[in-house]
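Note to self: keep these together.
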Amino acid sequence: MSLLGKLCLSLSGLSLIIMMSTSWILGGWLNVLYIFLALFFLGIILSFLIDYNLYLGFLLMRTTKNGMSMGVSILITLVFCASLAYLSTRFKTSVDITEERINSLAPQTIQLLKNLDQDMDLIVFYKGGAGNQKKEMVKKNLTLLKQKSSKIKDRYYDAHLKNKLAQEYLNELPGKDSENIFVFVEYKGKKVLVDFPFDEGKLVSSMIKATRRQERTIYFLSGHEERGTSNTEGAGISEFKDALVRSSFQVKTWSFVTNGPLPKDVSALVIAGPQKPYLEKEIQWLEEYLDKGGRMFVALDPDKDHSLTSLLKQFGVNYTSRYVMDRIAALMGLGQLSPLGVYFDKASVITSSFQQGSFSVFHIASNLEITDTKRGPFAITELVKTNENAISVPSIEGKVEGKRSAHVIAMLVEESKEFEEKTGEKEDPEKADKANNKEPSMKLAVFGDSDFLSNDFINSRGLNRDLIMNTISYLVDESDLVSIRPKRLKATQLILKSSDQMGMVFFSIALPIIFFIFSFIIWFRRREA
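Structure:
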């Protein structure tokens, strides 16, 4: 390198040192420093022009090319890693590869998030260092919600530091002085406290309460030995009631004997497995309720005298009171009297999300049939059917025989909106006025069994809970409020034979030793070469 080239490089380096030192000492950039910046680039350019041949020869050397190639590769790798790290903090996206979709949101939750028309705040209060760990657990559960909707906004406050804000939210809560963590959902000015544990089910239940603008009341009919909501035994349906409460419904009990006709605030009426017949006046009240656009969930058993068969026939459903026997259920260890519902109507909102291969479990069930009626018109949907190996018999005593076919276990009856097209007749003026005034239309869900509502069956291996809650939600015109089943990892067993154990020992101990010996031999021979 020539002397003049060295002086130019020295000028460039000196300008760089002066520029950086001055900027650091003064704590900022001054316009005068542009002079030293210009001298820095000028020195480099002049040095390259003066010793052009020297630099060109250096760049054309094989070692320089290899070194630059490796340097570029290292630089690209560093840029890729830095970009990946930035994107991973800037955008949080995960891929769920578990069979049970344990790290994914339920379709119902996604639908609820899509229906949000403005921001929903999730406010978390924790206390001190101990609360930090609990806060991180809540934050992890909220991550999936935030990924699916930009309208989910989470905020975290230390109750010790934000004392005034904490008092505003926690002042009337029991246990406010404990070290517990508190989570609130706030939407359009409505605040709802989230129950522990803060999993998807609890969070979405509180989100439903925050978004709902109208209270929905589910009445359970009593007085005829129906399945009780307070019974905690296996035959009771207390878990059904709890599921309704978690979905933000009010649950009440009504008796015709003591209270008379149904009240006006009935969103849906549940008749669950009556064992004694209804009186003629009570059936009349039920009929009037349906005629006024009532919503009813009826689950009956074939071995009980409930006297509701005639009422159901008026609405196009024939409750046959025959026993459905299922050979496939017997092979699964459930018994022939526990038929499986395996075919679900894909067009209905209630069952459209049920995947192929899913099933619901019933016990001592009757099949249902569509029958002619002078009322109507009605749109009748066969919600659930058994497999083709089931039979229907009038009695389970003695030898049972019957034609094997798929039998309907659940039906949905609704007022048809295509009256004139199907019948060619004119619609009743009173019903036309009711439709024009946007009064609720009648919906009736009929099940040939009530055992599937019980505590023993609602959380069975099948889809009983989803079927029940989806039906209730549809009856009250809130199809987005359906059940979210808890996700559990399946237990995986690893059973090894003696040969498998020997193989593991070989691959984990013997094989590395063999590779080490061969490596040593190769190294020794190359050293002697």
